[in-house]
Every structure is written in structure tokens, then in C-alpha cells.
Design a protein that fits this description.
binds 4-O-methyl-beta-D-glucopyranuronic acid, single chain, Chitobiase, domain 2, 18 strands, 22 helices, six-stranded mixed beta sheet, Alpha-d-glucuronidase, C-terminal Domain
Length: about 700
């Protein structure tokens, strides 16, 4: 870590354009060395390497001779830095950035307020349509000059536009006659860090927490800037920096000062600060006897705390709360509802325009015997009781980030309360930082799922965008994976999940394949055949993982650290933390009966989905054992019995994992050696572990099925 003092930081980090200093994208030598070897990379630059994309660079050089960025605010300084470094690196030549002169073949960057030309260029009507964070990129001819205009209503919109143009050039796309209009589909595009104050990360697989609490607020690591650049480059506009299992000390003055220093670094990048709040904070750090949401002294405490926070961080986003879940305190202690708990905080934040993000990840046993039903029951009964500045954050599936789950039935079910989605890039249950599992496809499947909340085509994406029910707040959050590892995410390919989240939060309808394509081009190479090989590996990877771990709707076949197979796991502090609770394998068959004859979870979905899921003949086979308890000889669509199908899927998954390794080996020499080797090492682990998954699961279930293992 490059620790520098606050003063140095301000001179080096923010105003470093003159010296082209933006750590992580200091221009590098892209050409192969004399031996023809591609220079090694360590992955630190993520998708912001700004490598020349090939022949098309010649065309770029013709089109881009200069850039004009007016405005001296911190965000404009960031814009200037990023453009200078990005263009220099991609084009291989210095591009002068002026503040006033507009010459032929310039990139013109600004807002109507910052640049006269933008005021005069008749873009104002169109600008109105892109809102506060959107932008236009337009190739125009004006006064005999060919110009590329990046215009937005706000500086942050301009920054997003600049990153967009840099993405186009990094991925080798034409920029000759651009007519782009973008605006984010969701308001809240937030990363959630499950980072603890002692530097560890819950479910983190890439080193320790990025936040150096012991050095803050005096010392500001350059890594905070590079983190913000990465987030802003994909449109992320907020970060919850501490674990939802929240240490109450984060709200003490000492920590708030540290948090404020981080918020100052991120402000120019449009990243707002949010904190996870412990519901018992008034007791734990405030010295009050209770944290009862209806108690006047508790209300006063939160109000004063909000005032204190906003005194330090004027654009503070709000609180994320995990309450009454997995031992976390909450309003239930005082016989109050989730709505009463959330509203307490919402009222304290409202005068400052802050919001409360209240998690729906609750599963109290007294609500229902089937864990996956509980959140729906608790929250639908409270619909309409939450303040407008509360949004409920719901995991993509009703259990817990399993390799494959049906979408959570709360999507579409809350009519009067804003709902946002929570997805997880950290791969807690999907191979952690050891397996190559691109989650873009899984999230695409989730976002395209039809809830039928208001008839067909009420997809989850539309619910999130507020198009099914008119939500005050829209958004998506992702439990993200960066830590202090040099390459941020442990596995080079885990970076793709952070990237894919940002792109999907910007536009939940971008195809996962396009996102993978962009990412490969920016992260590895623009060489066509290599791109298509890697992209296809990514596109296949999630289904491969499902095949060798939990196919056909199996779930939670793990224990311990959620990595290895543990289908025999039948002892845990609570039954719904075991594996046997879910698979219920016996000599008769396997699966959790969630039909109307069983737990009835199917009826939490709108028709016709509830009927489809309920009907063993119509239920999609990928969810079969999720919803149905099936005999081992149940006939599958393939003509095989369920047992034969399970054997086939596990074997297929294991061989596909071995193939992933081989496919990657075929790229030797066409990527830098270092990253190629590091990925290969992990693919070897993945192949070995996939074989173990298949063997151990089939051996274990074979004890019940009493049929030969195929
Ligand atoms: O999946 C579980 C994780 C916990 C996590 C919890 C949650 C932060 O195993 O580590 O706690 O979900 O989402 O609250």
C-alpha cells in the first residue's frame, strides 16, 4: 500500500494531472519486449489499463488531437487526469488538454454551466432527458471543426461520459459518428463491504479490508483514489463501507472522523458514503438503557447522531441496517415491527435527505417452518407502513446467494414500499476467489425473471426500475469483493463480477455477454480470438459451477466456510444452517416440498408462476428439487431418472471444469505470463475441487438412492 499523508495526497492524487499521476494508470510500456513476450501485469489496474486496442488507434489519432475541459472543481480535475492519462496511454501520444481553446478534432467536455459551447450547441433539450447523472456523447461539426462533445447536466454526469468514451476506445469501438445518450436506470448503485473494524472482511477472499482505520484520517492511501476511479468508471455512486453485522463503534466521533476523510476522497468521483448501523447503538455507544424505536430518548439520540454525521459529511447517503437477523439487534426486542425500526432512523435522516436501507434478510423460526418463506411473510404484512425514505434491500433469492435460486418472491410483492436488490460478487457460495465463476449470467437470469406482479413482462429488472410499482427509491446493491490483494479481488476473474454489477446497476438490461466482452477487452486483450475464448469461458462458467455443486435446484449442500461439499452436515446451532434440512435425502427420494402439499412457498409467487412451480411436470428442472420432493426414479425430460440425471450433471460439471483449465492453457503466450499463470493455478484448483464435489455428493446421495453411481 502506498501510504501518503493528507497533504501529499492532495498534491499528488487530485492535482497530479500535470505529472500524469493517477496511480494505477501511470502510462506503461504496452509493446511486447524484444523477446516478443507480452509484459507481465499484476491486475492492479483492473479494467482501467488503457491499453491500445490495436489498429484502430490510428483512426483515433486522426480524430482526437486535443481535449478541452473547463472547470476547476475537484471533479473536473479528476476528469482532466483521467482523460489525460487514458488518452495518452491508449493513443500512445500526449493529448494536450486545454481549458479554453477549441481546435479542430477536439474532445469537448463539460456542462452547460462550465462550457459556453455546450450552452450554445442546442443540446439543452436532450440534456434535460438525461437527468442528473446521465450524459450525451455526440460527434458534431461546428464552425468547420470536427468535435466530440461529452455533455451532461452535472460534473458527475460528465465524469461518467468520459469513462464511457474511454471504454469505447479501450474496447476498440468506432468513435467517428457518435450519438450516445445514457442515463442510469437505477438511482442507488451501491457497493456493500462486509468489512470489520479490525481489518478482517466477512466473506472476503482477497486480503484484508482496504480501509486502514489505524491510519485514518491523517494518512490517505492512494488506493482509496484508485478504488473510487474503479467504482465511478462503472457508475457506482455509493459505498456502504462496514459490515452489516455492524460494530456500533463506527458511529462514534473517532470513527466518524475517519469515515469523513474517506468521504472527502470519494466526493469528486460521485461516491457517497453510507454506513451500516447497529440498531442497538443508543445502548452500546450512547449509554441509553434501551434502543426501543418508540422511546423519545432513543429518537433524540438518533436525531442528534444524524446531525453529527451530516456536520462531518454533508452528503452522507444514509444507513444500511441488518436488524433482527442472525443475532443482530432490532426492533423485535421491544415488540416493535421492522417498519417501526426503519422509520425511527428514517425520521432522523429525513431532514438531511438521507435514506434508510433496511435489509429483508430475516428468517425467524417462529414465522414459518420453511426458512425461504419468512421474509416475504414479515415484509408483505408491513407494506405501506414504511416512510418514503426507506427502501427494503432484498437478496436476489429467498435463501442466501446460492449457486442458483429462483428470484425472491418479495420482488413485485411490495406495492407501496421501495424495494432494491442485493446481489453478491464475493462468491461466498460460488467458489470464493478460487473458482472462475462469472456471475453476470446469473444476475441476468435473475433480472430477466418475470414476476408477473402486474401480468406478463413484470420482470425483476422492471420492478427495480420502478416500472411495475412506482417506487420512490430504486436501486441495486452488491456485496463486493475487493481487499488488499494486489489484484484487488484474489482471482483475476473475480474482478469481472464487481465490473458486471456496476454495469447492470447502470442498466439492468445490458446483456451479460456484452459486459463480459467489454471486460475481457479492457482487462486482458482486444485480440479477437482470445476475446471470444475467454468470453465464452465466462459465459459457460456459472452453469458449470451449478452442475458440479448444486444442480436441479439443490441448495445449501455446504457447511463450515461455505466452500466445500458437506451434504452430511446435520449439526449446526440452528437446523436451517445444516444441509440435511434442505435436501432431506432418504431412500424414497430427495428435495424440499415447497408445493401446496408441502410448505406452500410456491404461493408466494404470482400466478401463473405459483401454479407452474407447484406442478412437477411444468416446474423448470433447474428448480426441481428446490420446489419438489422427488423419487429417485422420477422421470426427467431427458428420459433419465432423477438419480441418473444427477449423476450425469455432476459428472458433466466436473469434466467441464477440467475443460476450463484446458481452454485457458490454449491461450498460453497470448496473454501476459504472470496473469496467465495465476489464473491457471486457480483453474487447476477448480478442476480438482469440482471432481471432489461430484465424487463426494454422489457417494453421499448414493447411500440413500441405493442405485449405482453413474
Ligand atoms: O450468507 C450469510 C453470510 C453471513 C452474512 C449474512 C447476511 C453478513 O454467511 O456472513 O452476514 O448472510 O447477509 O447478513
Amino acid at each position: 500500500m502506498d501510504g501518503i499523508s493528507r497533504r501529499q495526497f492532495i498534491t499528488r492524487g487530485l492535482a497530479g494531472a500535470a505529472g500524469l499521476y493517477v496511480s494505477g494508470c501511470v502510462p506503461v510500456q504496452w509493446q511486447a519486449g524484444p523477446s516478443g513476450q507480452i509484459p507481465d501485469e499484476d491486475g492492479y489496474r483492473l479494467w482501467l489499463r488503457y491499453a491500445p486496442p490495436g489498429q484502430i488507434v490510428k483512426e483515433y489519432r486522426q480524430l482526437v488531437r486535443q481535449a478541452c475541459v473547463q472547470g476547476r472543481s475537484p471533479t473536473f480535475r479528476v476528469i482532466r487526469d483521467e482523460l489525460a492519462v487514458g488518452l495518452f496511454s491508449i493513443l500512445g501520444q500526449q493529448i494536450p488538454i486545454s481549458e479554453d481553446s477549441i481546435s479542430d478534432r477536439s474532445i469537448i467536455v463539460g456542462t452547460p454551466g462550465s462550457l459556453d459551447l455546450i450552452r450554445r450547441s442546442n443540446l439543452e433539450d436532450e440534456l434535460r432527458a438525461v437527468g442528473n447523472e446521465g450524459f450525451l456523447i455526440r460527434s458534431i461539426r461546428l464552425a468547420d471543426k470536427d468535435l466530440t462533445v461529452i455533455a451532461a447536466n452535472t460534473e458527475i454526469g460528465v465524469l461518467y461520459g468520459v469513462f464511457h468514451l474511454l471504454r469505447l476506445t479501450q474496447t476498440g469501438q468506432r468513435i467517428r459518428s457518435l450519438d450516445i445518450r445514457e442515463r442510469p436506470a437505477l438511482q442507488l448503485r451501491l457497493v456493500n463491504h462486509w468489512d470489520n473494524l479490525n481489518g478482517t472482511i466477512e466473506r472476503g477472499y482477497a486480503g484484508r479490508s482496504l480501509w486502514q482505520w489505524q491510519e485514518l484520517p491523517e494518512v490517505l492511501s492512494q488506493r482509496y483514489v484508485d478504488y473510487a476511479r474503479a467504482c465511478a468508471s462503472i457508475g457506482i455512486n455509493g459505498a456502504v463501507i462496514n459490515n452489516v453485522n455492524a460494530d456500533p463503534r463506527i458511529l462514534t466521533p473517532t470513527y466518524l472522523r475517519k469515515v469523513a476523510a474517506l468521504a472527502d476522497v470519494w466526493r469528486p468521483y460521485g461516491i457517497r458514503m453510507y454506513l451500516s448501523a447497529n440498531f442497538a447503538s443508543p445502548v452500546r455507544i450512547g449509554g441509553l438503557p434501551v434502543a426501543d424505536p418508540l422511546d423519545p430518548s432513543v429518537k433524540d439520540w438518533w436525531r442528534a447522531k444524524a446531525d453529527e454525521i451530516y456536520g462531518l459529511i454533508p452528503d452522507f447517503g444514509g444507513f444500511l441496517v441488518k436488524a433482527d437477523s442472525e443475532g443482530q439487534p432490532g426492533p423485535k426486542t421491544y415488540g416493535r415491527s421492522h417498519a417501526e425500526g426503519a422509520n425511527l432512523l428514517a425520521d432522523a435522516l429525513a431532514p438531511h435527505n438521507g435514506i434508510v436501507i433496511w435489509r429483508a434478510f430475516v428468517y425467524d423460526q417462529d414465522v414459518d417452518p420453511d426458512r425461504v418463506k419468512r421474509a416475504y411473510i414479515e415484509f408483505t404484512t408491513l407494506d405501506g407502513q414504511f416512510r418514503p425514505n426507506v427502501v427494503i434491500q432484498v437478496k436476489n433469492g429467498p435463501l442466501d446467494f446460492q449457486p442458483r435460486e429462483p428470484f425472491h418472491p418479495l420482488f413485485g410483492a411490495m406495492r407501496q414500499t421501495s424495494v432494491m436488490a442485493e446481489i453478491q460478487a464475493t462468491q461466498e457460495y460460488t467458489g470464493q476467489a478460487k473458482h472462475l465463476v462469472y456471475l453476470g449470467t446469473m444476475w441476468e437470469e435473475f433480472l430477466r425473471s418475470d414476476t408477473y406482479a402486474k401480468g406478463p413482462d413484470s420482470t425483476v429488472a422492471k420492478v427495480l426500475m420502478g416500472q411495475v410499482h412506482p417506487y420512490q427509491l430504486t436501486g441495486m446493491a452488491c456485496v463486493v469483493n475487493p481487499g488488499t490483494d494486489t489484484n484487488w479481488c484474489g482471482h483475476h476473474f473475480s474482478q469481472a463480477n464487481w465490473y458486471a454489477f456496476g454495469r447492470l446497476a447502470w442498466d439492468p438490461q445490458i446483456p451479460a455477454e456484452r459486459i463480459a466482452d467489454e471486460w475481457v477487452r479492457m482487462t486482458f486483450t482486444n485480440e479477437g480470438q482470445v476475446v471470444s475464448t475467454i468470453r465464452q469461458m465466462m459465459m459457460d462458467s456459472h452453469q458449470i459451477y451449478v452442475n458440479y455443486t448444486m444442480p436441479l435446484g439443490l441448495h445449501h449442500l455446504i457447511g463450515g466456510d461455505h466452500y466445500a461439499p458437506m451434504p452430511w452436515n446435520d449439526r449446526a446451532p440452528r437446523p436451517d444452517w445444516t444441509a440435511t434440512y434442505y435436501h432431506q435425502a432418504s431412500e424414497e427420494g430427495i428435495g424440499f416440498d415447497r408445493t401446496r402439499r408441502g410448505s406452500g412457498a410456491v404461493d408466494q409467487y404470482f400466478p401463473p408462476l405459483c401454479d407452474i412451480f407447484d406442478d412437477i411436470d411444468r416446474c423448470p428442472e433447474e428448480y426441481l428439487i428446490w420446489f419438489h420432493r422427488c423419487g429417485w426414479d422420477h422421470r426427467m425430460r431427458s428420459g433419465r431418472t432423477l438419480w441418473e440425471e444427477l449423476c450425469a450433471r455432476y459428472r458433466l460439471g466436473a469434466s467441464q471444469a477440467a475443460q476450463l483449465y484446458k481452454r485457458w492453457q490454449g491461450l498460453a503466450g497470448r496473454l501476459d505470463q504472470r496473469r496467465h499463470r495465476e489464473v491457471a493455478e486457480r483453474l487447476a484448483i477448480q478442476a480438482a475441487d469440482a471432481a471432489k464435489w461430484a465424487d463426494q455428493i454422489l457417494e453421499y446421495f448414493g447411500r440413500f438412492s441405493n442405485r449405482p453411481i453413474g
